[in-house]
Amino acid sequence: MAGVSITAGLPIGIGIARNTSIGTALLWLLPAAALLVVGGSAVDHIRWRRTRYRMTPGRVELRTGILVSKHRSLQRDRVRAVDITADPLLRGFGLVAVRIGTGEQSEAGEGSVVLRPVPAAVGESLRRELLDRTHPETSADGALAVLDPAWIRYAPVSFLAPALGASAFGGVLQVSEWFGLQSGVIAWVGSLFRGVPVLTMIAVLVAAALVVGAVASLGLWVEMWWNYRLEREPGTLRVRRGLFTTRSISIEEARVRGVELVEPLGVRLSGAARVDAVATGMAAAKGDDDKSDRRTLLPAAPLSIARRVAADVLREPESPLDAVHLTGHPVAARGRRLRWALSSVVVLDAVLVLLGALLTDVLLHIAWVSALVLVPVAVVLAVDAYRGLGHGLGERYLVARSGTVRRATVALQRGGIIGWTFRQSVFQRRAGLATVIATTAAGAGAYAVPDAGSDDGLALAAAAVPGLLEPFLEPASTVPTNGAFVGT
Q1: Distances in Å between the alpha carbon of 86 and those of 172, 218, 246, 430?
Q2: Is there a contact between 486 and 474 (Cβ–Cβ < 8 Å)?
Q3: SS3 track for 445-464
Q4: Running DSSP on this structure, what letter comes out for residue 155?
């Protein structure tokens, strides 16, 4: 509560002091902060005194509430994950937060029970007890992957780096505004670039933002992945990581339906990839405090290690991502990507030209420079996206690959597919293409094979899950001559 009062009171106090005096600001803020700390602590104390939880052979129950009493109950056999987190404040007192989840999504977060805080030993005991089921066919194989500090080199090439750089610039402007110095900061930056062309100034500022973002991404990576360890316990896969905030994420092996190899552009050019689990019961509850992705089993690491971890997670001698041959997509799919990429550049330049004609000639110069740069980049990315398209069927897995800025290759168990969706736009029908979407209860819920040939897409779906699609297919002799298909 003290941290909340400082965070909220600092900008307010600066604003009051600017218009009055520091003494007046303190006179207003100190009583308010004391009331917030004392009152908030008292409310939490009463709430914790009225909070009870218990585990019966069949259920996990939680009772809490002050004015409104809440009773939440979960069936133990539906518990899919028990995650343990501890931020620096909890760790300082030897406490943890335990999230017990069934993977169900709801507006009120009814698919999970959160115990915050409990002693660390109690949290670990709860995790073992709730996930201790009979798994005669599984064993504890120990560590599947451990942290290699050299993996930090992939942090600056992620898309997070430029976002962090832009946030840092925005933060400087916001803080300077609190102290009434924003105009001075802008004037100081302008004086540094006096006599320098506008385009050069923009290039320098962008480069500075990228450097700041790269440094920030290194720090964030260390905080998230320090002490990383992926290990197999009887019946579960467990990921442990974190420097200041520690996290322990458990995934029941029986719920794993596949893996996804994710290669963001910068990471892919560096020869690396990360591994995500495709598993049921991995949905995050609304309002969850821990915003990290629970599906990530391996951070960005060399591609050979990522493929080896994918095979170990699936208990396969060879990763399906390597074993299954991928079939390319029709040339018409390349045309669609080229048109989309070039259309995006045209729209962007049209907006710049319009604003330039109305406001300033600088935007006109930015428009033609961006066209020179973005058109070849768009073409290269579109061709790369086409070359990345592929799909294939193995004995147990459907493998699909797509994307260029974020290339993802998913290996999905054929037994985990519960339905199919076929999507065709007007332009796809004219080109003889279709997007085939495998529906599953695991992971993202649906995995697409975009812009496959119409016949190839139907054949893929029919072969992947025999008997599921046949009732909706017509014999080839009755298929309409315009190339459309009948399905659902």
Answers
A1: 30, 21, 5, 55
A2: yes
A3: CEEEEEEEEHHHHHHHHHHH
A4: S
Positive or negative, the Cα torsion across 364, 365, 368, 371?
Answer: negative
* Largest interatomic CA distance in the chain: 89
Give strand pairing partners of 433.
453
The structure tokens 């050069």 sit at: 200
- Name the β-bridge partners of 256: 279
Q: In this structure, what token pair is assigned to residue 249?
A: 């994420």
Q: Which residue has the tokens 């319009």?
A: 354
- 290, 287, 283, 282: which is closest to 250 by C-alpha? 282
Residue 184: pLDDT over 50: yes
d(CA 94, CA 311): 37
* pLDDT digits 0-9 by tens, 130-155: 887 645 455 556 899 999 999 999 99
- Strand ranges inside 223-289, DSSP E: 229-233, 236-241, 246-252, 256-264, 272-279
Residues 404-442 pLDDT 10s:
999 999 999 999 999 999 999 999 999 999 999 999 988
Residues 237, 313 contacting (CB under 8 angstroms): yes
Q: What is the DSSP letter of 154?
A: G
- Copy the structure tokens of residue 237: 């896969």
User: Average model confidence (pLDDT) for the chain?
Assistant: 87
> Which amino acid is located at 425 in the chain?
S
User: How much is the pTM?
Assistant: 0.84
Angle at 224 between CA 442 and CA 302, to 5 degrees: 75
Residue 353 CA to residue 356 CA, distance in Å, equals: 5
Residues in the chain: 488
If phi over 0 gives left and psi between -120 and 50 gives alpha, with beta otherwise, what is residue 115? beta
Contact at 8 Å (CB) between 310 and 259? yes
For residue 135, the model assigns a pLDDT of 54
Which residue's entry shows tokens 């925005």? Answer: 170
Q: What angle do CA 48, 49, 52 make, to 5 degrees?
A: 75
